[in-house]
Amino acid sequence: MRPPHWLPWLGPLLAAGAGALAGEYWLGGGFWVVLIAALVCGFAPIVAYRIWKRMHHRS
């Protein structure tokens, strides 16, 4: 089974959502907490797509 071609495009949407949630609920950490949450959640779909694609090519 191939990974969905739209999976990497979820990154910006997830980054915005994670940044908004981190700003709303974890604002005690300030700017850095929001930035780290947005970066991690923004790059997660891209990394997952690459791993899925690499595993698919091996089989």
Automatic annotation (TrEMBL):
It comes from the Bacteria. Keywords: Membrane, Transmembrane, Transmembrane helix. The chain crosses the membrane at residues 32-52. The keyword Transmembrane applies. This is DUF4175 domain-containing protein. It comes from Brevundimonas albigilva.
